[in-house]
């Protein structure tokens, strides 16, 4: 469905206090917690793996929206399923040959499958995954080059969101990178409903106000 999901990116949180940071965001009105998994290979940054998800899961029942910026996502499906991940979003750039197997495995471990596309990847690449017998349930359109928080939103990526929304009225479409009060209207108007926001939420004096502003933009 196209209800708004506001997903603070825990990449911008204090990793040494991850559970309290998660509780803080949920109290501020977050729907999901976005977990950026980077392997130092698909992207140059290195963040967290399944053990961190397993530890956080012991402190919250929240939806853990895991975004896997890794070269071999299939290797991560079972560990993430067992750790308690809720959503498992892999990149099509790493998965052209095995996305069917990936989706099946993700679902069999009780997670919700999603596919992500980098700014340079064309939107047609995900059509077969959305239309498959066992489809992905979300498309993540990257609005920055994956790898780091705090980058500038790329408005040219909105064409992909518009095309997806027109073609798939009920699909969850997530945007990730550079989203905040000054860019949310572009994403919401294009048709995105799942909004990842790291630095704009964690850097705000009143994160709850930013979260409600993001939600209101998607709803209007
Ligand atoms: C970037 C990550 C994003 C990042 C967003 O590779 O996928 O989730 O944390 O951070 P901001 O909102 O600061 O651009
Ligand atoms: Zn992300």
Note the run of SSEs as H and E: EHEHEHEHEHEHEHEHH
Q: CATH superfamily membership, which one?
A: Aldolase class I
How many helical elements? 9
Query: Residue share in helices?
Result: 25-40%
How many domains would you count in the coordinates? 1
Strand order of the largest sheet: 1-8-7-6-5-4-3-2
Bound ligands: D-xylitol-5-phosphate, zinc ion
Biggest sheet statistics = 8 strands, parallel
User: C-alpha Rg, in Å?
Assistant: 16 Å
Describe this structure as you would to a colleague.
This is Ribulose-phosphate 3-epimerase. By secondary structure, the chain is α/β, with parallel strands linked by helices. The chain has one domain: Aldolase class I (TIM Barrel, Alpha-Beta Barrel). It is 35% helix and 20% strand. It has 9 helices and 8 strands. The chain has helices at residues 18-27, 50-57, 74-83, 99-108, 127-130, 158-167, 184-190, 199-202, 207-219; strands spanning 5-8, 32-38, 63-69, 87-91, 112-117, 138-142, 172-176, 194-197. It has an 8-stranded parallel sheet with strand order 1-8-7-6-5-4-3-2. The protein is globular. The model has no long low-confidence stretch (mean pLDDT 98). The site of zinc ion has 6 residues, from β2.
